[in-house]
From TrEMBL:
Pfam families: TauE. The keyword Transmembrane applies. It is found in: Cell membrane. Coiled coil: none annotated. The chain crosses the membrane at residues 76-97, 104-123, 143-168, 180-199, 205-227, 234-251. Belongs to the 4-toluene sulfonate uptake permease (TSUP) (TC 2.A.102) family. The gene is SC7A8.24. It is a multi-pass membrane protein. Keywords: Cell membrane, Membrane, Transmembrane, Transmembrane helix, Transport. Its main location: membrane. InterPro entries: TM_pro_TauE-like, TSUP. One of its GO terms (cellular component) is plasma membrane. This is Probable membrane transporter protein.
């Protein structure tokens, strides 16, 4: 595939925006997946190549949140286990299942999240001072994290919303810490998924790395925004991105 200057600019700009959106909420892949397919990639190749940028933005975001002391470490391993298992199963599904399943799953997820945020916003954004639950004491979190991992391994686009629902909704983390743990989960199951896609020969490295440069820059800026933002601002940003995800799923 020939990569033009226009392609480079497209990948850098969409990657930058996706890095911000994914770090603060989710749904950035609704920008990057179409950008990759505009270049002529088949859907399954774009889905795989997109993971390079997702992985690198997650590395940047995780290090940033950790530097600011927003990465809770007490329960990381129990949180990661169901996410990784789900991510591996989801990646296998993405590699071997027909691509026509992607759109209905994406749209259904976005609609459910938008409905939850309208009907019960406190589920996604716990009040300050809410006590955090442990995974071992919250069986529903295993299902939530496993489903989020599967969804992330399968589609990736919008997985941030699903992870926030599991981390804030079942474990009651505030949105900043939920975002930090969300990026850690995303990093781990994306690496798992990426390994499978590489083995299947689905990753195009040059556009993937160009995209990654943009996502890393966006994630770096977004961490500083998340630390300084008011909880209400993050909640509204999350809701708006969920609606944008619904629109993108309809058009995708």
């Amino acid at each position: 595939m020939d990569i033009t200057l226009l392609h480079v600019c497209l990948l850098l700009i969409t990657g930058f925006l996706a890095g911000i959106i994914n770090t603060l909420a989710g749904g950035g892949s609704n920008l990057t997946l179409p950008a990759l397919m505009i270049m002529g990639m088949p859907a399954e190749v774009a889905n795989a190549t997109n993971r390079v940028g997702v992985a690198m933005q997650a590395v940047t975001a995780v290090s940033g949140f950790k530097r600011h002391g927003k990465m809770d470490s007490d329960d990381i391993i129990p949180i990661l286990i169901p996410s990784v298992i789900g991510g591996l199963i989801g990646a296998a599904a993405a590699a071997y299942m027909p691509t026509e399943y992607i759109k209905p799953v994406l749209l259904g997820t976005m609609l459910i999240m938008a409905a939850v945020m309208l009907v019960k916003p406190s589920f996604i954004a716990p009040e300050p001072g809410t006590l955090v639950n442990k995974v071992r004491d919250t069986p529903s979190s295993w299902w939530g994290l496993g489903i989020a991992g599967f969804y992330g391994g399968f589609i990736q686009a919008g997985v941030g919303f699903v992870l926030i629902a599991a981390l804030a909704g079942t474990l009651r983390y505030d949105l900043v810490r939920a975002n930090a743990l969300k990026m850690l989960c995303t990093l781990v199951f994306t690496v798992v998924a990426l390994g499978l896609f590489i083995a299947e020969g689905l990753v195009m490295w040059v556009p993937g790395l160009i995209l990654a440069f943009g996502t890393m820059f966006g994630a770096h800026i977004a961490v500083n925004m998340a630390i300084k933002a008011q909880p209400a601002t993050l909640k509204w940003f999350l809701f708006i991105m969920t609606l944008c995800g619904c629109i993108a799923a309809l058009m995708f």
